[in-house]
Write a structure and sequence with these properties.
Elements (H helix, E strand, L loop, with lengths): L2 H7 L13 H11 L11 E6 L2 H11 L8 H7 L3 E7 L1 H7 L19 H19 L3 E5 L6 H8 L6 E2 L2 E5 L30
Antiparallel strand pairs: 1-2, 2-4, 2-5, 3-5
Helix pairs in contact: 1-6, 2-6, 3-7
């Protein structure tokens, strides 16, 4: 698939077929994720891969109260055979920028106007989405319910040094399911968000 086709075809899939995926595609997606740019080449990301029926079921059990009586959205999402939790490590960035070539030896978080640990993990997540699109699969990125994060950490042993920035489901797209916000909101033309030379009204 040409790159422009990947960009155009990528969308958030919310309904999956009950069909396994080729593990080689998942391996390629995760390998590609680690090619994302990162501040100071810190590479402060990690990925919790859940690709067995038992592990995926455990994820949904600790992620929602309605796993036994799911609505249409949840039922479609739960059929995804693969779940990935991209995680970021703030500590890795504070340590990296205290090294001699960076020199912020005080490890002061206030030096970071933007949380690049989250931004870099998000870039890596996009490469996962693009890779599975290129392979003819579907994926959806969504957030972790804050009240469920503690249970997720405990269930899967996610250390305090890493924070899940979201969840990616991966599988074969199935017809139907929630179309999400793009079915209710038009895509903004790129010309409306690009400001050449000077930002103006």
């Amino acid at each position: 698939m040409e790159f422009q086709d990947v960009v155009r075809r990528r969308r958030m899939v919310r309904n999956y077929a009950d069909e396994p995926v080729d593990p080689a595609i998942i391996d390629r997606a995760l390998a590609n994720a680690t090619r994302a740019p990162s501040a100071g080449f810190t590479q402060g990301w990690a990925f919790l891969l859940l690709d067995t029926p038992a592990d995926v079921a455990r994820f949904w059990a600790v992620s929602t109260d309605t796993v036994d009586e799911p609505g249409d959205w949840l039922a479609g999402m739960m059929r995804a055979p693969v779940v990935v939790l991209p995680c970021s490590s703030k500590a890795a960035y504070l340590e990296r920028y205290a090294e001699p070539d960076k020199g912020w030896t005080d490890r002061d978080e206030s030096r970071w106007r933007m949380p690049y640990w989250h931004l870099d993990a998000a870039k890596a997540s996009l490469l996962i989405l693009q890779t599975v699109t290129d392979a003819g699969l579907g994926a959806c990125f969504f957030g972790v319910v804050p009240e469920r994060e503690g249970a997720l950490r405990e269930e899967f042993g996610i250390p305090d040094s890493h924070d899940p920035i979201g969840v990616v489901t991966i599988g074969h797209p199935a017809p139907g399911g929630s179309g999400g916000s793009p079915t209710r909101r038009p895509r903004t033309p790129w010309q409306d968000v690009v400001h050449r030379g000077r930002w103006s009204d």
